[in-house]
Design goal:
- The complex is a heterodimer.
- Helices cover 74% and strands 0% of the residues of chain A.
- By secondary structure, chain A is mostly helical.
- Chain A has two domains: 81 residues; 175 residues, MetI-like fold.
- In chain A, helix 2 packs antiparallel against helix 16, helix 5 packs across helix 9 and helix 12 packs antiparallel against helix 16.
- The radius of gyration of chain A is 28 Å and the shape is flat.
- Chain B is built from 18 helices and four strands.
- In chain B, helix 15 packs antiparallel against helix 16.
- The mean pLDDT of chain B is 78.
- In chain B, strand 1 and strand 2 form a beta hairpin.
- The relative contact order of chain B is 0.08.
- In chain B, the strands form two sheets. Chain B has a two-stranded antiparallel sheet.
- Chain B is mainly alpha-helical.
- The chains are: A mainly alpha, B mainly alpha.
- At the A-B interface, helix 2, helix 5, helix 6, helix 7 and helix 11 of A face helix 2, helix 4, helix 5, helix 6 and helix 7 of B.
């Protein structure tokens, strides 16, 4: 009897150990607890690394001058101050620059999305003479550094008197499918349109729709995911580019005369700061010296519109990745 | 040689894109006229003609743009590298000359390229450094983004939140913001101090320690550069057919085996794409020291644009070689036999599953 009892107990312990082991290490169908912990720890760590610069920037931008020097206030400001943002807004001439930058980024983005979608569709759907040659040119344009074409293009612009501080050169290049990183946009659209079932488009054509109508009413609605991705990317590229933007605007232009972008203003931040504040109070320059907090506030302000856009489009963007097709085979 | 080049070849070069553009326009118009005439005559148009016309209709703006801005830019920049370009009072191109052994003045079209070799002492060093950092960074970026994509693809809670955070670099990691952050020293991981790493690696020789410490000091930048790569891998992972995994599970493959035998082989083309993308962005990005060097040379008084163009073209050739090496290393090799057999088995298992054959086989196994 007692022997039987002991055996039963041992068996029970064994089962319990098995169950524990299974829960920890997992089985073929389910991930074990241990593995889950490892994955979550990794994910959270890396997420922190990704967020760290932004958090750092944000907390710094709220710091007082005394906090910057105080080693104990490395993370959180002891006292939140909005003065840095005030100064940065004045230095960047923020609302004015923001408006100009929105014009400069939004209009070419819309054109770029429209044209690249058409070009991608043309390549994906039709066969025409020299197709392979043009595809080769497309790949070449992706691989060559922009420096190769930058001066000849600048010369072309100045010969045609296009680089005059307006949105014109951006508009023309975007409408001719030569916007910033347009090759990538075309490739994304190419892959999406290639996945659209041909039968759908052909059915529309049999029903009497023309080729363009079939594209506009069938193919475009089917690639909304690509449109979201390309819109977001193009906007970001137009927003962040500085070298090419300066070339397109013409080198002699300042924000007083023509258009500008926040990133260009950010590059000149230190100079504009001293100009803005020296002119106001030349006697108290010592207290008005630029510091990291103001710089960080300026950077924060410059990327704020991007962050807003990203969080607005975030859901569609993340989903569009799920729907696949940002890349081809 | 020089004479021939300057008189016959180079003048043609800058005209090529325009000839191409005019040719394509003429062809398009001719086909259009033909199509209109046929339609007016109420005759049917051949399908291939219709296809070509519509194809060119869709890509036409791009064709015009690429000829005006890209191809002519490329041709011009190649042309300038064989001349001495001056911008005073309009564009002036002077053929390059040199003296031969007898003291006669002769054309020397490659003088700019030779000068880069002779004058630019920083150039080879910077190039070598860039190549080393490329070799170090590429595997890290690729494997890191693959791991992240695998984790994000699995069943985890808060997937949307994680994805939102992980794609954040795509938005901010370009432009002057990054340089502002690097200047602040945000580019290294906060918890791991430089000294810890140095002390861990204390016993090792110099040439191993330096790249590794460099790597850690740049870690955030490297991770931040892998946003698009994660995106591409995630998209690729979505396309692996789930039936393959199910078949492997029936055959009793563990997760580890599944990764090596199904996930990785299917992702091979994505790895290639990602590597090429990474090499291109690292090579042409504005943080690249060589691009800096070229810019400085272009706007320096003594060197000028022709010199810069020569440097750019040499660099382009080097990047092309690097890309070719990457391509050859990662491209799809001829399938090994064992792999093929294994794939066939999976395929047949899948087919069997559909017809219930596997179930029958399993049942028979149980009875036996």
């Amino acid at each position: 009897m007692s022997q039987n009892d002991a055996a039963l107990k041992a068996r029970r312990r064994e089962i319990r150990r098995d169950r524990f082991k299974k829960r920890m290490l997992g089985s073929a169908d389910k991930r074990g607890l241990l593995m889950s912990v490892v994955i979550y720890v990794l994910l959270i760590t890396i997420a922190f690394i990704y967020l760290y610069p932004i958090l750092y920037m944000f907390s710094r931008s709220l710091m007082d001058r005394s906090d910057l020097l105080d080693a104990s206030a490395k993370w959180l400001p002891s006292q939140i101050t909005g003065k840095n943002y005030n100064d940065a807004i004045l230095t960047l001439d923020y609302w004015n620059s923001l408006w100009k930058n929105l014009v400069l980024a939004l209009i070419p983005t819309v054109c770029q999305v429209f044209i690249c979608s058409m070009v991608g569709y043309g390549f994906a759907r039709y066969n025409f003479p020299l197709k392979r040659f043009w595809m080769g040119v497309l790949i070449l344009a992706f691989l060559l550094p922009t420096q190769v074409t930058s001066l000849p293009n600048y010369l072309t612009f100045s010969r045609l008197k296009l680089a005059d501080g307006t949105v014109k050169p951006f508009l023309i290049t975007a409408l001719l499918g030569q916007g910033f990183k347009s090759v990538l946009c075309i490739l994304i659209f190419y892959n999406f349109h290639r996945q659209t079932p041909q039968s759908l488009v052909e059915a529309a054509e049999i029903d009497g729709a023309g080729h363009f109508k079939a594209y506009w009413r069938i193919a475009v609605p089917l690639c909304t995911a690509a449109i979201v991705v390309v819109t977001l990317f193009s906007f970001v590229w137009y927003w962040n580019e500085t070298t090419l933007v300066r070339e397109y605007l013409g080198y002699g232009h300042t924000r007083a005369k023509g258009l500008t972008t926040l990133m260009i203003e950010l590059q000149k931040f230190e100079d504009s700061y001293s100009v803005t504040f020296d002119a106001r109070a030349s006697s108290v320059t010592s207290t008005n010296k630029i510091n990291d907090a103001i710089r960080m506030a300026g950077t924060m302000l410059a990327i704020a519109p991007l962050l807003v856009l990203y969080f607005v489009l975030q859901k569609q963007f993340v989903e569009s990745v799920d729907r696949a097709g940002i890349t081809g085979e | 040689m020089g004479n021939w080049l300057y008189e016959k070849v180079l003048p043609l070069l800058s005209n090529l894109p325009w000839v191409l553009l005019i040719g394509v326009c003429a062809g398009f118009v001719a086909a259009l006229v033909y199509a209109i005439v046929r339609t007016v005559q109420k005759k049917t148009l051949r399908r291939s003609v219709r296809e070509s016309l519509w194809g060119y209709f869709f890509i036409f703006p791009w064709v015009v743009g690429i000829c005006i801005f890209f191809l002519s830019g490329v041709a011009d920049s190649l042309l300038y590298s064989f001349y001495n370009l001056k911008l005073e009072g309009g564009l002036q191109l002077a053929p390059l000359t040199g003296t031969d052994e007898l003291g006669n003045t002769v054309y020397a079209p490659f003088a700019n390229y030779v000068a880069v070799f002779n004058k630019e002492l920083n150039y080879p060093v910077t190039l070598a450094n860039f190549a080393v950092s490329l070799v170090l960074q590429l595997p890290i970026i690729i494997s890191f983004s693959l791991i992240i994509a695998l984790m994000l693809n699995g069943k985890i809670k808060g997937r949307g939140v994680f994805r939102t955070i992980f794609f954040l670099p795509v938005i901010i990691a370009t432009g002057p913001v990054m340089s502002k952050l690097t200047a602040q020293g945000v580019s290294s991981v906060p918890m791991v101090s430089q000294n810890t790493i140095t002390s861990i690696l204390a016993g090792m020789p110099e040439f191993i320690v330096t790249p590794i410490t460099d790597l850690f000091s740049q870690l955030i930048l490297i991770l931040w550069n892998s946003g698009i790569q994660i995106l591409i891998f995630l998209a690729g992972l979505q396309k692996v057919p789930s039936t393959l995994y199910e078949a492997a599970k029936i055959d009793g493959a563990s997760g580890w085996e599944t990764f090596w035998k199904i996930t990785l082989p299917t992702l091979r083309s994505m790895i290639l794409l990602n590597s090429i993308y990474t090499v291109v962005t690292l090579a042409t990005g504005s943080t690249n020291p060589i691009i800096d060097l070229i810019y400085n040379a272009t706007y320096a008084v003594t060197k000028g644009y022709s010199y810069g163009a020569a440097m750019t073209w040499m660099y382009t050739v080097i990047v092309a070689v690097l890309l070719l090496i990457t391509f050859l290393l990662i491209r799809e090799k001829k399938e090994k036999k064992s792999n093929a057999v294994w794939r066939r088995d999976v395929e047949s298992a899948r087919r069997g599953m559909q017809s219930g054959k596997v179930r029958k086989l399993l049942e028979r196994g149980k009875h036996a």
